[in-house]
Amino acid sequence: MSKSDCERIHKQLSVGEVAKRSGVAVSTLHFYEAKGLIASWRNAGNQRRYTRDVLRRVAIIKVAQRTGLPLASIRDALKTLPEGHKPTAADWRRLSASWREELNARIAGLTQLRDQLDHCIGCGCLSLDECPLRNPWDELAEQGPGPHLLDPDEESLD
Amino acid sequence: MSKSDCERIHKQLSVGEVAKRSGVAVSTLHFYEAKGLIASWRNAGNQRRYTRDVLRRVAIIKVAQRTGLPLASIRDALKTLPEGHKPTAADWRRLSASWREELNARIAGLTQLRDQLDHCIGCGCLSLDECPLRNPWDELAEQGPGPHLLDPDEESLD
DNA sequence: TCTTGACCTAAAGCAATATTGAGGTTTTAC
DNA sequence: GTAAAACCTCAATATTGCTTTAGGTCAAGA
Predict the structure, then answer these.
(1) At what angle do helices A53-66 and A26-34 cross, to 10 degrees?
(2) Are B115 and A100 in contact (CB under 8 A)?
(3) Are A22 and B92 in contact (CB < 8 Å)?
(4) How far is B71 from chain A (nearest CA, A)?
(5) B89 touches A: beta carbon within 8 Å
(6) Which residues of B touch A99 (CB under 8 A)?
(7) Are residues B63 and B4 in the same domain?
């Protein structure tokens, strides 16, 4: 039986095949498995075997990482997929909807930052008690990190 | 002489004062100094002393980090500031201009990702050879990472 | 059969960005 | 003068996301 027969006949993928098709290193697949993001079973010789499903999962992982999500969050999101059957389009849609919100939030944050950069650094002011760049904590309670005035007569850094 | 006299009279800041005013931990200031992002001199008792300038630098560092820049890049950017005199508004403007481009690129990337997420994951297709989410490498040469077809008869993951 | 490539595990290493701890000194406040 | 708070250095630890190494097993092709 030839190597690619492994996949063509049994619809199983070896770790090397998954690596080539998904574009990630074998060591990364091991790593993702250890972290609970993907799963496999073993053949008689203790080698990993995957269903083709894993290709989509790896693709999703890589896409989600580009949004800035840490692997732990991606793992948790993937855990919400059904156990028994192959995820449906609706399952994936649900995942993508939550990530879309994440993305929108990050885009909004960066956009605001860019505009503030124009106004605040551009003009060189960066006044400690007025600049939104310096005080993105405005809405938070007194507790928490952030710059604090020590003297009431403090107005600016310059 | 009281503690705050250190600053009010001599216009110097201790590391603790900088920490409180800038909102970062003392250990972080040590760390930034070791990495060449900020500078200080020592008093007779070997304690760090800072000019008020450092407050602006720390503010800039924190802002730049929010754009996604690594500290090494921020350090390099800060190195372009004049050595002898206090940076002018024009100096800061030059820095912010380069970071604005970075930001625009990141915003564009995330926006594109969000739209592709809508089209590709939302519908559940993720076709290996067509989906832009799966193949953001389209413009790169053959070499390099990325998913590759092993069989010409491969069309989709499903 | 034999060799080579693919695979296995477990541990260590790396880069970035800090935080924590130990053990000692200095400054401040009363 | 003394005690507490702040400071010092250096080393270790933590987290995230992997890669590398070492030492061995398994499988595929000539």
Answers:
(1) 90
(2) no
(3) no
(4) 18
(5) yes
(6) 117
(7) yes
Q: Does B60 touch chain A (CB under 8 A)?
A: yes
Whose tokens are 């793992």? That residue is A75
Task: Name the domain boundary from A70, A87, A104.
Answer: A87
Q: What is the pLDDT along chain B (158 residues), one digit of tens a residue?
A: 444 444 445 689 999 999 999 999 999 999 999 999 999 999 999 999 999 989 989 998 998 898 889 999 999 999 998 877 788 878 888 888 888 888 898 898 888 888 877 776 655 555 545 565 655 543 333 333 444 443 433 434 44
Own/partner long-range contacts of B143-150 (Cβ < 8 Å, ≥24 apart)? B145/A23, B145/A24, B146/A23, B147/A21, B147/A22, B147/A23, B147/A59, B148/A20, B148/A21, B148/A23, B149/A21, B150/A4, B150/A17, B150/A20, B150/A21
The reported pTM is 0.78
The CA distance from A23 to B111, in Å, is 23
Domain identity same for A40 and A25: yes
Does residue B50 belong to the interface with chain A, where contact is any CB pair within 8 Å? no
Asked whether residue B104 falls in the same domain as residue B65, the answer is: no
Q: Is B96–A113 a contact, with Cβ atoms under 8 angstroms apart?
A: no
* Domain assignment of residue B100, given as a range: 89-137
Query: Among all chains, which residue has been given the structure tokens 């697949």?
Result: A29
Separate counts of helices (H) and strands (E) for chain A: 6, 2
CB-CB under 8 Å, A63 with B121 = yes
For the domain that residue B27 is a member of, what is the CATH number? Answer: 1.10.1660.10
B118 and B44 belong to one structural domain: no
